[in-house]
Amino acid sequence: MxxxxxxxxTALPAQSWTQDADIIAPHLVEWRDKYQGHTPLMLTPRxxxxxxxxxxxxxxxxxxxxxxxxxxxxxxGQTPMGEVLLSTKKLTQICDVNPVDNAMIxxxxxxxxxxxxAAAKVDRQxxxxxxxxxxxxxxxxxxxxxxxxxxxxxxxxxxxxxGVEAVLPNGDIYNGLTSLRKDxxxxxxxxxxxxxxxxxxxxxxxxxxxxxxxxxxxRAMMAVDGPDAALKLLDICxxxxxxxxxxxxxxxxFRAVTENIPNQRDPFTEPHPWYxxxxxxxxxxxxxxxxxxxLLGQAFEAALMRDAVIAQSDSQAAQLLAIREHMSAGQKxxxxxxxxxxxxxxxxxxxxxxxxxxxxxxxxxxxxPVGFGHFGDGNIHYNIxxxxxxxxxxxxxxxxxxxxxxxxxxxxxxxSISAEHGIGIMKKEDLARRADPVKMALLRSIKKSLDPQNIxxxxxxx
Length: 462
Ligand SMILES: Cc1cc2nc3c(=O)[nH]c(=O)nc-3n(C[C@H](O)[C@H](O)[C@H](O)COP(=O)(O)OP(=O)(O)OC[C@H]3O[C@@H](n4cnc5c(N)ncnc54)[C@H](O)[C@@H]3O)c2cc1C
Fold this sequence. Notes:
This protein is of the alpha+beta class. It folds into 4 domains: about 1-85, Uridine Diphospho-n-acetylenolpyruvylglucosamine Reductase, domain 2; about 95-210, 2-Layer Sandwich (Uridine Diphospho-n-acetylenolpyruvylglucosamine Reductase, domain 3), CATH 3.30.465; about 215-330, 2-Layer Sandwich (Alpha-Beta Plaits), CATH 3.30.70.2190; about 335-420, Alpha-Beta Plaits (2-Layer Sandwich), CATH 3.30.70. The chain is about 35% helix and about 20% strand. A 5-stranded antiparallel β-sheet has the order 5-6-10-8-9. A 4-stranded mixed β-sheet has the order 1-2-4-3. The longest helix is centred in the middle third of the chain and has 17 residues, at about 285-300. The two termini are about 25 Å apart. The relative contact order is 0.12.
């Protein structure tokens, strides 16, 4: 290993690696403080060629590598435990923006926000919308197949990409940077890297799909009784064909944000059991206001809605979204939290909540379920906050037992134990035990054929 590390440090320019503990430190902790890593060396290559040179040396010396983008992943996949850390933070070039093809080529380390800004400059949008967009990288988004708030209209990240450039575990460079919408010339190799969590290679750049920018985004927040009303409300909100977002927040999460996070306030005059946040893409502000009023009028008439706030300005729209965006931060004020990222078919969401809430109370009396998130695409962040005043460590020690219950219920409705965050370290054992053996065998055989030495993110997923 020492020999290989020395080779890496001599083969790469001094700006492309570091062993400085202070520089490396923030890369070794992650957002949830769940994993604390360590590494002998952090590589910060500045070009695809430098990535390839580094990986070739690692392959020759059997040195394991953990790729890292913005370090916002929530399943521990980006945290090295003794492996070399390869950060894409210096691969930040927007290489090409082509509004005719509606395509953009961006290097993997570009933040999602930088991609949004570059698209806006040519009057286009890249519609992936995550609260972490100021920090997460496009390479990380592709590697986790990130979802976010716009999935019900635009799909997940894998639907938003033409192809990728990636450095393979042997150091070869695969170039799939096309903007062709039709190209049936064999397996879609770029797709292999989407959602691969860095196990098959390092994505160095991507050709992304751009979309027309809506003239206006009409936002509204609605108060409802619970998941059943929310599901019926979704049907009405979708009837326009313009719905881009449909998120839910239960009262406990809403209050955790509005009562604890600076500058957040409750836009309603009284508390409600559940809140829905919706966006519609419309041709003008007037058309947006008319559409929201008409749809929400229907919801009132059907007795599905307790109250509603229709955003009247960009700043009011931003205030409403901020409550949803602060949900993760807000929950820290509730103490320890056991977190899930599950998805079930939409029609089963109310039954999922009913069954899971009852099972949780039976398992941990007085625990506080906080099920929020991307209701419109079936993805619920079903988190369980500790009972008030309980011992945090003792509560968190029940994570695996609680997982078994939640995952059993999820699967009983035909759902998935990982909707958008991926498998990482956190759900590796769960996947191995629960996935169809044929699927596991296929995943392992693809991994083995591309990475026979198991040097790419070796502890993750498979
Ligand atoms: C506040 C908050 C809100 C979030 N909201 C959402 C949400 O709504 N939807 C959602 O899907 N996720 C969400 N996330 C999770 C996270 O932001 C996404 O998973 C994001 O895509 C990770 O990007 P990253 O650049 O931070 O990746 P990292 O955390 O750096 O890495 C994630 C994984 O990808 C691998 N990886 C990173 N870059 C590369 C590369 N270039 N090549 C190969 N492998 C690579 C890593 O090894 C790791 O396995 C949220 C996170 C936070 C903190």
